[in-house]
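Entry 14. Ran structure prediction on the chain below.
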Amino acid sequence: HQAAWDVPIIFSTPASHSSSSQTRRRKMAWSHKAKSIVVLITLIKISAISFYVGYINAVNETLNHNLSVTNNLNGGGDADCATSITPSLQLRIDARLMEARTRMEEVDNNSESHNTDTAKLFPDTVKSYAAGILSVSGKEFLSDPNYDFGVPFKHGYDYADALILYNSEQAIPDSLRHDASHGDKHGHIAKTSVSTALSNCDAMNVIFLPLGHTQTRPPMNDCYTIVGDYEDYHINRWFRMPNFDTTDKKERELKHSHPLRHFGRVTLPKGVAEFDIPELWKSQKRGLKGFVLDHFEAMRTFLENFDTVQKELKELITKRNAVRNNTVVVMTVNIGQSELLANFVCNARSRGLDISNVVVFPTDIESKTLAEGLGVTTYFDEKNLGALPKGEAKMYGDPIFASMMQAKILCVVYMINLGYDVLFQDVDIVWFKDPLSFFHDESNTAIQNFDIMFQHDGSGQMRYNPLSANSGFYYVRANKKAQYVFTSLLYDGAFVRKCKSHQQVLVQILLEHSSFFGTKVKVFDKVETDMFPGGFHYHQDWGVMHDIVSGKSNAYILHMSWTENKDNKLKFLRQMGEWYVQDQCIGHDYLELVEGGGQVTDGSLINQCCSAEPIFSCHFRDKPSKEPCFNSPCIDKRCRQFWNPMAPEFVAELKAKRKALN
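Output, structure tokens:
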């Protein structure tokens, strides 16, 4: 799996042919044609030689005649005069000889151009994997519904053609065998349609290569080596870098003076390995366990309690009838993010959306109290999740953020192993309409064969490529392929802890399982589709955001990802008109809100916490908002305003206000 992506080089194997008679007839026809060409070339050569010999004889006769006349006029002369040539005549002879020689060379070149041995695009030494090559439109290939690889498009680049290598003549389309092995009439790689190019292929092997460069992957002089040997389905990367084990981190950059060395496939040119190996011990002398041993302890707790948790969950879901079309919506939360959970519930209730199949996995008693008070099905796995931190993550990848990854994995593992399809989502999401109606739409046949479907994260970092799947919103079918994906992710917990996020680890597991087991993964493109916008759109694609605030969008959700902390998420949601939580439910002990100081019961906090109407307030004029926030400050240095104050409607409004004041 190449970590960077975009343009596929395709290796194809041949389709079987039941009869060899047609092949023999084609070979015989080509043999007769080749013999005719050889005869024609021989005749041309003989004609040229005859012309040359005849011309020399004619010149000699002219010279002899002229010399004879001269001798007669002069009364005879020295015999040596018969061999003398004037300078002007010598020039004429040289010119004619050069002309004849050029014609002979052209004949030889034409002969070589029809020689199938010397004019092939590839030598016979590579014919076992490169018998021919054709190109197809890369955009057409990635857009073909028959070959939906699930990867999003890389926008902002002109798509290059895809190259298709054939390992035998029989794999090449019948009508293009000569062009595939020799090139088109100009000697270039011939181009055809995707359906034609693959018409004789029994199998197709696809590799994605980088298209353009990004901030994390600057331009490099990449070489791609194809070696005929035992078949392999992985990419091995070699860089001109020093040995990391014996070199200081400051000196690990790419330099041409270094020899090529083997490194991990997601190593950056600045000498950073995006995937580092988790340690067994932080300090064995001091008895400080590393990520691996910590994960062993977590797995022991999980395995010892797995059967009990599964039984309790099954009983809870059955009792509350928390399933719709065999699907549950799964979320996890701690007290630090609890207001975002409250906003999701209150927002959905204000729109009349069905959230009866939402199951929340809190990691502390406080968030358990809130979830129950909001009337959603709640399961507190205290043994596995009770020790997780309660505070809010200050930024992506900080220790609290990293610790919560265990909860995000476990809640999905529990549900799909019970046989329920799962829509997992983070708590910083609001629904415009029920997203399950999209995934359950049987008429949408294009998505029904995928095992797991993701929102597009929008990031082009190598550690997420080529899928760039967002692990905060995805749909999983409870089949054995998807179940094993998340079982593998659970087993890789030490790696998740080391990476501080499960998203990049999940992407690599998805790639491996897609190649190894044929697991079908789909990421909905951030531009080609508008159903599931997220932080990328909020911060960068304001065309999508203007459609949302104007009511023209087809979006089902808005995911406030790509946002540094909870405080900013609250502000962005408020000025988008998507905040529905009363101030008294923000940052308070929820038990204090219960009338009479009693226990929180199912749904007892809805009236105290949920607003029937959105609570709007402006915070930043350079972020999307439901209404213009012209008087608010900027949060980014660029300070690009979301609303244009010079737009005609605002100019007219300003004039009307001034007129009213006068």
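The two ends are 69 Å apart (CA to CA). Will compare against last week's run tomorrow.
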